[in-house]
Amino acid sequence: MAEAHQAVAFQFSVSDDGVLFHVQLKPLALALWRLARSRCQGIRNTILKGIFPATPLSLLFVSAGVAALHATGTHPSIDTIYFGPRWYNSMPIWNVSICLIESLFFWTILCYIQRYTLKCLLLYKGWMFDSRGKRSLKTKLFALCVKLVAGTSNPLLGSYQRSLPRLPLPSIDDTCSRYLESVRPLYNDEDYEAKKKLVEDFKRGPAYKLNRYLFLKSWASTNYVTDWWEKYVYQGWRGSVMINSNYYACDHIGVLKNSNQIPRVACYIHAAMRMKEDIENEKLKPLIINDLIPLCSSQYTRLFGTCRIPGEKEDVLYHAAPEESRHIVIYRLGRWYKVNCYSRNKLLNPVDIQWQLEQIVNDTDVELIPGEKHLAALTSAERPFWASVRSEYFSSGVNSEYMTAIEKAAFFLNLDDTSPELTLGGENRSELLTDYCVKLLHGNGYLFWFDKSFSCISFKKGRIGINAEHSWADAPIIGHMLEYISHIEEEAHLYDEDGNCIGEHDQSTPKPQRMKWKISKECHDKIESAYKNAQLSVSDIDLYVNQHDAYGKGIIKRCGFSPDAFIQMALQLAYYRDSGGKFCLTYEASMTRLYREGRTETVRPCTIEAAQFVQAMCNPQSTKEECKRLLKAATDKHVLSYKNAMIGKGIDRHLFCLYVVSRGKDIPSPFLTSVINEPWKLSTSQTPTQQTGRMDYNNKPDLISCGGGFGPVTKDGYGVSYIIPGDYLFYFHVSSFKSSPHTDSRRFSGNIEQSLLDMIDLYDIVIKKEDGLQYPPNK
Predict the structure, then answer these.
(1) Are residues 37 and 75 in the same domain?
(2) In 10 A of CB 226, how many CB atoms?
(3) Could you tell me if 121 and 251 lie in one domain?
(4) Where is the Carnitine O-palmitoyltransferase N-terminal domain (predicted)?
(5) Phi and psi dihedrals of 111, rounded to 5?
């Protein structure tokens, strides 16, 4: 308690003379100074975002112009401003006041003109369809105009938000036409005609009426998709979020700068909390494509201090205020701790966080309360069950206090005592990666608090991994955080020769608080029931991670292809071979963050062109030239579909929102119902990398991450996540269910590998050793 008292400005003591109050002026003054500085910075950021892309400097130019006009006897303002006696209007202070009012008036108009000019400019998406390296004249003029309007500004994280356009609403005819084209490879002629009739009946029936409702919503809301997507797809999900919704992200897998668990995770915590501060103070720079096109930054605000709260019928997303989420919750071998990361309103240094973690590791109070070890398994349970347990056993007393601490924490951390081995080289690298990633995916059912925005796990030899909840944001936000932390760890001098954090320990650092739950016999039974059900799910998951290092995107680009499109065609070929000659509805996620509050849209890679290419590859009579021609057509079609999805011309989000309207208005639609129930047997996603431009994987292969992954979407399907780190290799994370007789993750990974080799063989390229990953790197 002594450390805590030092951070308090007001103290009191009780004696025979009564209650004596003591005031420590220095801590009080520092606290008031930091509070005032924080409030002033908040006001400053609000003003800067409000006037963006204009700057405060532009007010000086406007004021100078107005003053110059006044000096020449010209009054640019409305004549009615000049009221009162003539002698009063001639007073210098009155003229200065009028000049200031006029300047603010015209400057405000200028700010709005600049903002809406930028918004109109950002509606232009022709730049996406220009040939690589060849800008059209229209795009060059567009780039020049954007630079003139916003190029001199120094944007904050949220500066561009009001300048981003709304997600456009597609027409019924366009969406239905694209839908029919996308499903043509999946059906025979008879089934396709039946599907076509459903579409025609829909267009003759409620389609246009539903779209009019959706049109009104598109103007009444910032984004016509996002709120419904989060509400019905994520928060309305009643099953377990473990495996079915959450995803995982991996540490870089080369040689670590520090393999000591405690010092490394201390620096990791410090770097994460620094990013939290940068987000709250809007110092984190927004991501801008080609130094020209901004992406929406709204998802970053929920990265820290966010938790999914279970409900009987629907979950809610809780986000703690910045000052309430200055701590983390740590789980260590069944014991729970609340750890404050701030002292005297200042972020602790890594050396002080290391001291806190050492207190936890060396804690001699190792007695566990029954149910405490598997407590987090409740978050892996079906949502109604977890909601009822939370309401009954964790809504009062110390349990409520500790539950609130978890839900308000910046994030959750598990200090594990296992030591997965990882390597970029070696024959058993895929087996090692798989063992590591399996634990990140499900944490044995109880090692993560699956409701937190993200949970970290720290392994004994320094490796770290993340399990993330999906409703609050998408994977690029977690990817950005990992790059931010890796950059700090790589560039900053954080460790001494012994591997400990540098610096001197501050004796006033607050100690970790042990959280001792009050768990009744009935509550314990509920926890164990959730744990047993989690084990059933864990035992059924089949995950395999493969490192493809025969060649990378450098070779693919040399052949003139988009790496993503090339890989998607390899996945189509692999599935066709794996399933015995069948095509399936395939999902690939693309982002819509070119629009305000945009999240994702679906790309459907199984196109007519892709099917023709796959069939040609599996036909011994097909020539290489024919396969090459069909591959080019298939990849071009995929790139076009991907770009259309990014600019609001996708299929699935529009149909999803039409379905929501039809349900809300009680207007039945057999077509929309059939679309919503179509199974995605192949669900794919590319893990974003090098978003910040700070990670040079080609020259620093130790920084390479193998990406992340997720569980399968259907019982007889595959979930495939892949990452393209640098020019020399790919990683594929393939998941399926062991209970399905139709799937096998290792077999499918082998089919992907073979498909990639067969496709590159079309071009008679001799793959040299230097075309693959060189590890250790050549000096």
Answers:
(1) no
(2) 22
(3) no
(4) 1-22
(5) -60, -45
13 with 104, same domain: the answer is no
- pTM listed for this prediction: 0.91
> Each residue of 605-650: pLDDT tens digit?
999 999 999 999 999 999 999 999 999 999 999 999 999 999 999 9
- Which single residue is written with the structure tokens 């008879």? 190
Whether residues 141 and 268 share a domain: the answer is no
Cβ neighbourhood burial of 379 (10 Å; 0-12, 13-18, 19+): buried
Q: Identify the CATH number of the domain in which residue 288 sits.
A: 3.30.559.70
pLDDT digits (tens, 9 = 90+) for 138-166: 999 999 999 999 876 689 999 999 999 99
142-151, long-range: CB < 8 A, 24+ apart: 143/292, 145/117, 145/121, 146/118, 146/121, 146/122, 146/292, 146/293, 147/292, 149/53, 149/114, 149/117, 149/118, 149/121, 150/52, 150/53, 150/114, 150/118
- Does a structural domain hold residue 634? no
What span, in angstroms and rounded, lies between the C-alpha atoms of 531 and 616?
49
Indicate whether 24 and 143 sit together in one domain.
no
The pLDDT of residue 30 is 64
User: Whole-angstrom Cα distance, residue 557 to residue 559?
Assistant: 5
Show the domain range for 436: 245-541
> What DSSP state is assigned to residue 230?
I
Distance, CA of 398 to CA of 473 (rounded, Å): 31
Task: Give catalytic residues, as residue numbers.
Answer: 470
Residue 178: which residues within 8 A CB-CB, separation 6 or more? 644, 649, 651
What's the mean pLDDT in 460-485? 95
pLDDT (0 to 100) of residue 98: 80
Question: Which tokens is 489 given?
Answer: 């760890």
